[in-house]
Design a protein that fits this description.
The protein is mainly alpha-helical. The chain has a single domain, classed as ACP-like (Non-ribosomal Peptide Synthetase Peptidyl Carrier Protein, Chain A), CATH 1.10.1200.10. Helices cover 55% and strands 0% of the residues.
């Protein structure tokens, strides 16, 4: 089950900062993770896998948003979570 929105964003912030090897404060909710921070698809999949394990959400068939931000990934997880619960 996913946590409240602020907690979810903080968790994603830590995960993306770790895989990108950047300070957490650089990874803000609306920064474009690919264009501005250099996130690649493997790093994104690693975070999705960790998030899926941590919050028991099936992210395997999830299609990633066109622009990757913490907010768009949180929305993706919420959609995946509602699909998982159905």
């Amino acid at each position: 089950m996913l946590p409240e929105n602020d907690t979810l964003l903080q968790g994603l912030q830590k995960m993306y900062a770790t895989v990108l090897e950047l300070p957490e404060e650089v990874v803000t909710p609306d920064v474009d993770l690919e264009a501005e921070l250099g996130l690649d698809s493997l790093q994104h999949r690693i975070v999705l896998a960790r998030a899926g394990e941590l919050w028991a959400v099936d992210t395997g068939d999830s299609e990633s948003p066109a622009t990757l931000t913490l907010r768009s990934v949180a929305d993706l997880l919420r959609r995946s979570d509602s699909t998982t619960e159905a």
